[in-house]
Amino acid sequence: MARIIVVTSGKGGVGKTTSTANIGMALASRGNKIVVLDADFGLRNLDLLLGLENRIVYTALDVMSGECTLEDALVKDKRQPNLALLPAAQNRTKDAVNTDQMKQLVTDLAQQYDYVLIDCPAGIEMGFKNAIIAAKEAVIVTTPEISAVRDADRVIGLLEAHSIKKIHLIVNRIRPAMVQANNMMSVQDVQEILAIPILGIVPDDERVIVSTNKGEPLVLAGSNSLAAIAYNNIARRLEGEKVPFLTLETPPEGLWERMSRFFRKK
Amino acid sequence: MFNEFLEKLFSWKSDNNSRDQVKRRLKLVLGHDRTGLSPQDLEEMRKEIVEVISRYVELDTEELVFSIENNERSSALIANLPIRRVKNEEKSEQVENEENLENEVKEIQLENEEKIENEVKEIQTENEEKIENEVKEIQTENDN
Predict the structure, then answer these.
(1) For chains A and B, what is the number of CB pairs under 8 angstroms?
(2) What is the separation of C-alpha A193 from the centre of its chain, rounded to a whole number of angstroms?
(3) Complex-level ipTM beyond the 0.90 threshold
(4) Mutate to test the interface with B, among A143, A156, A193 (most CBs of B within 10 A)
């Protein structure tokens, strides 16, 4: 039986889809059969981040309405044969799907794959309910910002209410220099507030944007960037490996740097 | 200017940096989110609780702390209500009253007893005097 994991956050724009794409790729490159399911009906983006947007013929909605088979709709990645995408419909809204249909779809996928990764839409309305209905585990993505952490907390409460007990945290876009200057919450700060176990720490990295421009997840490109290493570590931890967390401290700022920074500000 | 300079130079030592501020604000707002209590609800509850407690003790209203705190995804209402003093004036008044009553009763009793005694004595002496007088009168009559 496959592991069914929903990637969710509450707030939009914190890196759910980027995380889904990279974790999917990392798990696939480790020999697992992965399907990533875009549950963001009406605002699909996972196909873009994976660079598979031109290969979509049918969507998950077509499967649910019986217009095509599951096989027809699945887009298999030619660069990484272990990974397939089940795209969301772009021309319909989130209310076009109900929880029963979603449950059936995920159950069918779970029979063919080792992992079903569900990319959840932002918010806590119908699209969220559909995305979590069949999930057994959840990965919460947040950034060290007040609104993202607050929304993450709300979502954790909702997941617990749906008896999803295995919930892990990814803190995305950490900027170590800002943490050191006490101008950003640290991973520990966020973890203490949300009180769920940490799955990964992903530093803010410009190469993430470059990789989305190309439609080529960092992990697939074999990048040696910290973000790529972080996502590979997350995949290893999901598989039960104990991997130490990245240390993201910048070298301590000397008095001279501090003074020159001060005078630059003037 | 010089203060500002020092503040920037030693900014990592100040505990009013934006990192501490965001943590404080988050903890507060999550307390309300998790319990589903609005700040207005909390204020109402605070008033009612203080009202009940004030019936028994006098609270130091300026030092009251009333907040929702979170620990490992469970919330707790933390109330710190310093007591200025225990309200016992009413009790002592009662006690005083009781004592007063007792004393009054005793006094009245004593007074009454004295009066009675005196009256008895008076009556006795009166009677004795009367008897003596009568006896004397009879004696003189007899003598005559």
Answers:
(1) 52
(2) 21
(3) no
(4) A193
Q: Given CB atoms, is A156 within the 8 Å cutoff of chain B?
A: yes
- Whether B68 and B77 have beta carbons less than 8 Å apart is answered as yes
Which residues of chain B lie closer than 8 angstroms to A183, CB-CB? 17-19
Separation in Å, CA of A201 to nearest CA in chain B: 18
Domains of chain A: 3-265 (3.40.50.300)
Whole-angstrom Cα distance, residue A239 to residue A233? 10
Identify the sign of the CA torsion B8, B13, B14, B17.
positive
Strand residue runs (E) in chain A: 3-8, 34-38, 75-76, 83-86, 115-119, 137-142, 166-174, 198-203
Given an 8 Å threshold on Cβ–Cβ distance, is B72 in contact with A195?
yes
Contacts of A146 in chain B (CB under 8 A): 22, 25-26
Print pLDDT tens along chain A (266 aa). Answer: 899 999 999 999 999 999 999 999 999 999 999 999 999 999 999 999 999 999 999 999 999 999 999 999 999 999 999 999 999 999 888 788 999 999 999 999 999 999 999 999 999 999 999 999 999 999 999 999 999 999 999 999 999 999 999 999 999 999 999 999 999 999 999 999 999 999 999 999 999 999 999 999 999 988 789 999 999 999 999 999 999 998 876 555 566 666 666 666 54
Q: Which of B14, B33, B72 sits opposite A150 (nearest CB)?
A: B33
Does A150 touch chain B if contact means CB atoms closer than 8 Å? yes
